[in-house]
Amino acid sequence: MSAAIQTAAVGVDVIKTLAGGGQVRFQTFFPQGDIGAAGSGLVDGLVLMAERQAAQAELPDLQEQLTKMESELAQYDEDRKVVEASHVKRQAERAVEYSEIEAQHTTTHAVAYEEFRASGRDGVFEPRGHVAANLNRFVQAKAKIKAEIDKADAERDAAVKNLAISIERRQAEIARLATEITRRRSLVG
Question: Each residue of 128-160: pLDDT tens digit?
C-alpha cells in the first residue's frame, strides 16, 4: 500500500491575452516553500511559452495589417499625384482663360483708342459709355479668375498637406507594426 504525501502547494497561472481577444494560459504548481531560483526560472519559462504561443497566434493578423497599411500608403501617394495633376490641368485652363480675357481687354482698349484718334480729338483718351463698361467687365473677369487661381492653389496646398500628414502617420504605423512583427517572429523562432 502506498501512502500519499500531501503538501501545501502554490499555484502559478500565466495568462497572455491575444490581440484578437483570445487567451493563452499555462499553469503549474510548486510545493510551498520551494519557490526559489528554480521556481522563478520555471515561471519565466512559462511566461516565455505564453508569449511564444501568443506571438504565433497573432503573427498572421499583424502581417495582414501590415499589407493593408502598405496598400493604403501606396494609395495615398497615388491620390497625391492625382490631386497635383488635376490642379495643374485646371490652373492651365484658368491661365488660358485669363490670357484670352486679357487679349480681349487689350484689343477693346486699342480699338477704342484708335477710334478716339481717328475722330481727330486731342487730349487724353478716357474710355466712356459702352467701351468703359466692356473694359470694366474685362477687369472684373480677370480679378475673378485670379481669385479662383489663388483659391485653387490654397485648396491644393491644404489637400497635399493633409495627404502628407496621412502618409507620415501611415509610415510611422508601418514602422511600428514591422518592429512588432519582427519581435513576434523572434519569439516564435
Answer: 899 899 999 999 999 999 999 999 999 999 988
Phi, psi of 26 (to 5 degrees): -130, 140
Tell me the C-alpha distance between 103 and 90, whole Å.
20
Rounded distance between C-alpha atoms, residue 113 and residue 92, angstroms: 31
Q: Each residue of 62-100: pLDDT tens digit?
A: 899 999 999 998 998 898 888 899 999 999 999 999 999
Please give the Cα distance from 80 to 82 (Å, whole number). Answer: 5
Threshold 0.85, pTM exceeds: no
Q: Which residues pair with 25 in a beta bridge?
A: 15
Domain positions in the chain:
9-188
Q: Which residue has the cell 480729338?
A: 121
* Candidates 1.10.287, 3.90.1570, 3.30.310, 3.40.50; CATH matching 9-188: 1.10.287
Q: How many CA atoms lie within 13 A of 63 on its CB side?
A: 9
